[in-house]
């Protein structure tokens, strides 16, 4: 509960502080992903047709008009580009490398990964305890100690995260 409220407050404050940078980010995403892509595709088709195809009689037979050129190019190009995109994400090491770099350089992603790893170590022990409690069994001293160690590990992790955040904010 406390963490949820803190995250919402931090997101609200960060959103207000960084409004210009957030707008700049969304502008770049919209421009590069959609607008520039469409303009580049149109530019490429117009340029290649009117400079390379229109005046070549052999190619004029295959592409009698600009509309035919766009249709044929779309019919062949779109599936080809979908296949290349699929290969990039699913079959090549390129996307894995991009994801690795993203985690290495993005402190927020790295923090989520670290937090998840800490929590994953806690889940098996919690499920063990739940099974014992559901069977009305007592926890042994060793199990209580393990739980205590896990609690301390999580508290240390949280303290380290807070220290990192405090040190970062003092440099601003």
Structure description:
With 172 residues, the protein is an all-alpha fold. The chain folds into two domains: 2-91; 107-170. The chain is built from seven helices and no strands. The mean pLDDT is 83.
What's this entry about, in short?
The protein has two domains: 2-91; 107-170. 90% of the residues lie in helices and 0% in strands. It has seven helices and no strands.
Please tag this protein with its features:
elongated, 2 domains, mainly alpha, 172 residues
Please write out the topology.
Blueprint: H1 2-17, H2 19-53, H3 57-62, H4 66-91, H5 93-105, H6 107-134, H7 141-170
Helix pairs in contact: 2-4, 4-5, 5-6, 6-7
Mean pLDDT over the full residue set:
83
Based on Cα principal axes, name the global outline. Answer: elongated
Q: Main β-sheet: number of strands, strand sense, barrel status?
A: none
Report how far apart the termini are: 29 Å
Our Rg estimate from Cα atoms comes to 28 Å
Order of helices and strands: HHHHHHH
Please report the total strand number as a whole number.
0
Give the number of domains.
Answer: 2
Unreliable spans:
none
* Beta-strand fraction estimate: under 5%
Number of helices: 7
Which structural class should the secondary elements be placed in?
A: mainly alpha
Residue share in helices? over 70%
């Amino acid at each position: 509960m406390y963490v949820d409220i803190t995250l919402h407050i931090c997101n609200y404050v960060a959103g207000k502080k960084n409004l210009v940078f957030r707008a700049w980010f969304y502008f770049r995403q919209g421009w590069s992903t959609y607008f520039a892509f469409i303009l580049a595709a149109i530019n490429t088709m117009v340029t290649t047709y009117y400079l390379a195809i229109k005046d070549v009689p052999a190619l004029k037979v295959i592409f009698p008009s600009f509309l035919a050129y766009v249709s044929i190019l779309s019919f062949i190009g779109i599936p080809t580009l979908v296949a290349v995109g699929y290969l990039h994400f699913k079959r090549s090491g390129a996307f894995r490398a991009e994801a690795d770099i993203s985690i290495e350089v993005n402190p927020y992603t790295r923090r989520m990964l670290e937090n998840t790893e800490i929590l994953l170590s806690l889940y098996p022990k919690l499920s063990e305890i739940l099974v014992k409690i559901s069977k009305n069994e007592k926890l042994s001293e060793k199990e209580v100690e393990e739980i205590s160690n896990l609690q301390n590990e999580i508290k240390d992790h949280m303290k380290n995260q807070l220290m990192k955040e405090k040190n970062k904010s003092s440099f601003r």
